[in-house]
Design goal:
It is globular, with a radius of gyration of 16 Å. The protein is of the alpha+beta class and about 170 residues long. It has helices spanning about 50-60, 80-90, 110-120, 130-145, 145-150; strands spanning about 1-5, 5-10, 25-30, 40-45, 65-70, 95. Strands 1, 2, 3 and 4 form a four-stranded antiparallel β-sheet that branches. A two-stranded parallel sheet has the order 5-6. Helices cover about 35% and strands about 20% of the residues. Helix 1 packs parallel to helix 2 (about 80-90).
Length: about 170
């Protein structure tokens, strides 16, 4: 599986004073497999070790076999809390770190691109809650379209994952 984090914003700015305006945002963390399966979580706030460990718990429950997760070298992925979680769940999840500064080798970047291209231009979300609902609907739809999820692994820079053991 491959995983990456991403943040999406609505096109609407809040009514905060000028200079402090922020668009409501929703953070996502999808995980996809070459077999067409997908797991995801939608959350608000910063990407922390706790958020990632919760995500690992969800993957651990969702998949009945060991998970090999390809991730970037974000400090959260290498944190002590994550290493402790992995040690507490031996054999259930194995992290494979991508080279630094190589987003093109992560198929999850193609998921993020698909989300931007498909959902965001048509989005009518006026706040972060509506955006989170739209993002969840997008990912639930993709979970029912394994042929599209498998397609994320067909690019020349990401095809290597289909040849990894356990994938």
């Amino acid at each position: 599986m491959a995983a990456d984090r991403s943040c999406r914003r609505t096109g609407v700015r809040t009514g905060a004073p000028t200079g402090a305006r922020r668009r409501p945002s929703t953070a996502i963390r999808p995980a996809i497999s070459p077999r067409g399966r997908m797991g995801f979580t939608v959350y608000r706030g910063s990407f922390t070790a706790e958020v990632f460990c919760d995500f690992l718990d969800r993957l651990n429950r969702q998949f009945d076999r060991p998970v090999h997760l390809v991730v970037d070298r974000h400090s959260v992925h290498r944190s002590k809390k994550v290493r402790t979680w992995l040690a507490d769940h031996p054999g259930r999840v194995t992290l494979h770190l991508l080279p630094a500064y190589a987003p093109e080798t992560n198929p999850d970047e193609l998921v993020n691109s698909d989300l931007k291209r498909t959902l965001l231009p048509a989005s009518r979300a006026r706040n972060a809650d509506q955006l989170a609902d739209e993002v969840r609907r997008f990912f639930r739809r993709r979970q029912k379209q394994p042929h599209i999820v498998r397609g994320y692994f067909q690019g020349p820079h990401v095809h290597y994952i289909t040849e990894m053991p356990g994938m």
